[in-house]
Amino acid sequence: MQESSPSKAIVSTDAIRRNTARLRDLCDTPVMAVVKADGFGLGAERVARAALAGGASELGVATCEEAIALREAGLDEPILAWLIHDGAPLADAVARGIRLSVTSVAQLEQIADIAQTQHRRVEIEIELETGMHRSGCARDDWEALFDAASVLEDRGSVRVIGVWTHLAGADRLAYTAALTLLDEGLARARRAGLRPRSHAASSAPAVADPRTRRDIVRLGASLFGIEPQPQRPLGLHPVLQWECRISQIRDADVGAMVGYERHRVTRATRLGLIPIGYADGLPRRASAVLQVGVGDGRAPFLGAISMDQSVIDLGASTAQVGDRVTLIGDPGRGEPSLEEWAGALGTIAQEILTGLGPRVARVEEVRV
Fold first, then answer.
1. Helix (H) or strand (E) holding 59
2. Element (H, E) at 190
3. Catalytic residue at 260?
4. CA-CA distance, 270 to 227, in Å (whole number)?
5. pLDDT at residue 3 in the model
6. Cross-strand partners of 31
7. What is the DSSP string of 171-187?
8. Quick check: is 36 catalytic?
9. Strand pairing of 217-219 and 31-34?
10. Which of 8, 17, 66, 219 could bridge to 361 as Cys pair (CB 3.0-4.6 Å)?
C-alpha cells in the first residue's frame, strides 16, 4: 500500500479465484478472463493471475497496449485484444504473440503485412456484427473478409482461430437472432476454407442461456462478484473493500453550514471528514443517496461532495479520528455493496469499479 494514499481498495484475489472456478464449473466451458481497463480498475496482472488460478485458460482485453502490458508482466497464456484503434501498436503486439481481432479486410491486411515483415504467423479472430450495431464486420462484408483471410492463411501470415460476436441485454429472442447470424457467419467462414472456433457469451448470457456458451465464454463482471442475474444470485464473492479513515471530527449546531453549497444542519450532530471526493471515484450525486459504514452502523453524507474530501453525519456515534470508514464492502457484514451503489446511482457496478481514481491505492488482501 502507498502509505500516503487517502484511501485504499483492498482486492481479494481469493474471491476472484473462487468466482472464476464457480463460473467455470457452472458453464462447463473454457473461460477467457476479461481483464480490460486495468482489470476493471483493480490491477490487470493481479486479476489475471487470480482468474487463471481459478481455471481460466485465456485472457481478453480491449487494446493492444493492455495485452502488451500483460506480456511484459510475464503472462504467457493466450491473450486476445479486440479493439484495433487508430495508431494501435500492432507491430509490438505481433512481436509478443498477441491474438488480434479484426473487423475489416484493411485491418487484416495491415496485420498480415506486419507479420510477413517479422516472419511470424499471427493468430486472428474475426468479430461479426450480429445486431448490436456497434463493433464487428457488417454482414454484407463477411464474404470478402473470409476470402481474404483464407488467402492470407494459405500464405502463412495469419491463422484464423475464431469467429465471434457480442451479445446485448438479457433477451433470449435477441440472443437467438444474434446466434443465428453467428452460425451463418461461421458456416460462411468454413466454406471459405477456414476452421475457426466461435464464441459469443459474456457473463450474463453465459449464465442465463447455455446456448450462448459455444467453444469458450468471455467472463468479466462475474469474476468481480457482480451477479449476472441479481434475481437469481449464484452466491459470488465480493472482491472489493474500499475504505479510508476519519481525518477530522467536529460538533455542529443547528444552522451550521456544511460544504461549498452551504448545506444547513437541521439538528445538533457530530461531523466526520473523510479524505476522498469525486476525483477518487465518489460521485457528487452520492451525497443524497448513499451511506458509508462506520463501526457497526451507517453514516450518511452531509453537504456536497468535494473533489478531495467529504463530510459524513456521525450523529450520536462515538467514532473517533482514525476510525475506519467503509465505502464499499461485504453486504454480508452490513457494509455498502457495489450493487447498492449501482442501484442508488442509477448505473452499473462496472462503472463504479472502473471509476476509482488513481489516488486510491490498490492493495491485495492479505489472508491470515
1. strand 58-61
2. helix 172-191
3. yes
4. 37
5. 58
6. 217
7. -HHHHHHHHHHHHHHHH
8. yes
9. parallel
10. 8
Q: Which helix (DSSP H) or strand (DSSP E) does residue 272 occupy?
A: strand 269-274
In this structure, what DSSP letter does residue 98 have? Answer: -
CA distance 155 to 175: 36
Please count the other Cβ atoms lying within 10 Å of the Cβ belonging to residue 164: 26
Q: Which residues contact residue 19 at a Cβ distance below 8 angstroms, ignoring those fewer than 6 apart? A: 54, 222, 223, 224, 225, 236, 237, 239
Grid cell of 24 as nine digits = 467455470
Interatomic CA distance for residues 261 and 99, integer angstroms = 51
Burial of 345 from C-beta contacts in 10 A (0-12 / 13-18 / 19+):
middle
User: Which one of 8, 175, 260, 278 is the catalytic residue?
Assistant: 260
CA distance 356 to 8: 10
Nearest residue to 201 (alpha-carbon basis) of 233, 230, 237, 174: 174
Q: How many CA atoms lie within 13 A of 264 on its CB side?
A: 3
Q: Pick the closest to residue 277 from 195, 177, 359 (CA basis).
A: 359
Asked if residue 246 lies in contact with residue 274, where contact means CB atoms within 8 angstroms, the answer is yes
Identity (one letter) of the amino acid at 131? G
Cell 438479457 found at: 170
Question: 59 - beta bridge partners?
Answer: 33, 79
Q: Which amino acid is at 261?
A: E
Instruction: Compute mean pLDDT per 10 residues along the chain, 368 residues long, and list them.
Output: 80 98 98 98 98 98 98 98 96 98 98 98 98 95 98 98 91 91 98 98 96 97 95 95 97 93 92 97 94 95 96 95 97 94 96 96 81
Altogether, the residues listed in the chain come to a count of 368
State which amino acid sits at residue 268.
Answer: A
Q: What is the chain's alpha carbon radius of gyration, rounded to the nearest angstrom?
A: 24
- CA–CA dist 334, 325 (Å, integer): 13
Task: In whole angstroms, give the CA distance from residue 61 to residue 83.
Answer: 8
Amino acid at residue number 271: L
